[in-house]
């Protein structure tokens, strides 16, 4: 029985020695380096974001060192884990570069789209400006033909085309404002002429207002005979002086 | 005796079997799967352009694979297993470097082309 006890004691001691032998396995420098590299990589935000899975592989490899039975084993584990860490770095850097490219493309698309919109807007503006100046020219031409019944502010029949045009123009170009200036020749009473020219300008303004042009966009002025553009001594000159001048703003 | 074996014998037997099992643990099977995986990974790395972007890693992975294969012939399966694993890890690094290199090249080309467009 005594002999047995000794043997019973020997076995655990043997096992313990073996275990201690394992625990005392010297970790090579390369292994310590790998552990340090792992810690550094684990704190890298780019790796955290893009290649956490790959880094986890390195961690698992490092953990297998617990069951390593030789220094060669440890060296191999160190090699593999540091290689895996390196792989994680490159994968993260690749993902980062791809993300950068995507961002660049999106940015470029946005700026291109903005440029296209700006271009379209500019073209639209130019077209509108052209249309506006065309329309203005036509209106001025038409107003050259407007005639009033002598001595009154009423239009002669068939002279309304110019006013219709003006109304159409004012409704199409909502930001435009118009000034209607009435002028007469010098025949007759100057005060009366001034009043008459004002009435004629007002007449046109009232027609525009009836056609839904806002009053604040229309200025009607009567200058009478004060601003002749031709001699009042001839019939043709006087006809030129009797006029409605339209200006746009 | 057979019906009632003494304890000493039992202990001896268990120690022997433990020793045997420790020994057999050392002589593992041929790491066929690991070698095949390393081969495939090297192949994939080559297809990804590792020749250009990670020539050193690719060469190292090939060497380790060759060593693993020759250790298998010598029945050094444990060493062969380590080498095969190292080879695969190295080939994976070669893949990552190739991917990284290509992605960076694409990014810089894109930046360049955008600069030209802006001019």
Description:
The complex is a heterodimer of chains A (about 250) and B (about 120). Chain A has about 250 residues and is mainly α. Chain A has eight helices and three strands; from the N terminus they run ααααααβαβαβ. A three-stranded mixed β-sheet of chain A has the order 2-1-3. In chain A, α7 links the parallel β1 and β2. The model of chain A has no long low-confidence stretch (mean pLDDT about 85). Chain B is an all-alpha fold and about 120 residues long. In chain B, α2 runs antiparallel to α4, α2 runs parallel beside α5 and α4 runs antiparallel to α5. The chains are: A mainly alpha (about 250), B mainly alpha (about 120). Chains A and B meet through α1 and α5 of A and α1 and α5 of B.
Give a quick precis of the structure.
Chain A is mostly helical. Chain A contains eight helices and three strands.
Question: What topology emerges from the helices and strands here?
Answer:
The complex is a heterodimer of chains A (249) and B (119).
Chain A lengths: L1 H22 L5 H14 L2 H6 L1 H12 L7 H74 L16 H12 L5 E6 L6 H21 L7 E7 L10 H7 L1 E6 L1
Parallel strand pairs in A: 1-2
Antiparallel strand pairs in A: 1-3
Helix pairs in contact in A: 2-4, 2-5, 4-5, 5-6
Chain B lengths: L6 H20 L5 H16 L2 H4 L1 H19 L3 H42 L1
Helix pairs in contact in B: 2-4, 2-5, 4-5
What are the key terms here?
heterodimer; A: 249 residues; mainly alpha; 60s Ribosomal Protein L30, Chain: A; three-stranded mixed beta sheet; 8 helices; rod-shaped; B: mainly alpha
Oligomer: heterodimer
> What string, H for helix and E for strand, traces the elements of chain A in order?
HHHHHHEHEHE
What is CATH's topology name of the largest domain in chain A? 60s Ribosomal Protein L30, Chain: A
CATH C-level of the largest domain in chain A: Alpha Beta
The CATH architecture of the largest domain in chain A can be named as: 2-Layer Sandwich
């Amino acid at each position: 029985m005594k002999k047995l006890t000794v043997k019973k004691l020997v076995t655990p001691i043997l096992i313990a020695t073996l275990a201690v032998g394992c625990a005392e396995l010297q970790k090579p420098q390369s292994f310590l380096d790998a552990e340090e590299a792992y810690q550094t990589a684990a704190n890298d935000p780019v790796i955290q974001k893009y290649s956490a899975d790959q880094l986890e592989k390195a961690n698992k490899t490092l953990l297998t060192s617990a069951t390593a039975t030789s220094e060669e084993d440890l060296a191999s584990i160190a090699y593999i884990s540091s290689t895996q860490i390196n792989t994680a770095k490159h994968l993260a850097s690749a993902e980062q570069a791809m993300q950068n490219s995507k961002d660049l493309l999106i940015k470029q698309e946005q700026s291109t789209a903005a440029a296209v919109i700006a271009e379209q807007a500019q073209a639209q503006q130019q077209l509108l400006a052209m249309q506006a100046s065309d329309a203005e020219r036509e209106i001025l031409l038409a107003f050259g033909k407007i005639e009033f019944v002598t001595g009154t502010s009423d239009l002669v029949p068939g002279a309304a085309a110019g006013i219709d045009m003006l109304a159409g123009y004012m409704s199409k170009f909502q930001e435009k404002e118009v000034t209607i200036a009435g002028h007469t020749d010098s025949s007759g009473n100057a005060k009366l002429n001034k009043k008459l020219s004002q009435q004629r300008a007002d007449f046109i303004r009232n027609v525009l207002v009836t056609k839904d042009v806002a009053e604040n966009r229309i200025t009607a002025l009567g200058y009478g005979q004060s601003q002749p553009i031709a001699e009042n001594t001839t019939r043709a000159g006087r006809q030129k002086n009797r006029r409605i001048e339209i200006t746009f703003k | 005796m057979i019906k009632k074996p003494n304890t000493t014998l039992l202990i001896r037997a268990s120690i022997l079997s433990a020793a045997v099992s420790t020994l057999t643990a050392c002589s593992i099977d041929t790491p066929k799967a690991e070698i095949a995986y390393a081969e495939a990974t090297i192949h994939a790395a080559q297809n990804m352009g590792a020749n250009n972007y990670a020539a050193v890693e690719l060469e190292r992975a090939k060497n380790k694979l060759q060593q693993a294969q020759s250790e298998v012939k010598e029945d050094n399966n444990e060493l062969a297993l380590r080498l095969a694993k190292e080879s695969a890890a190295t080939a994976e690094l070669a893949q990552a470097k190739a991917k990284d290199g290509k992605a960076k090249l694409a990014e810089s080309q894109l930046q360049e082309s955008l600069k030209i467009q802006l001019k």
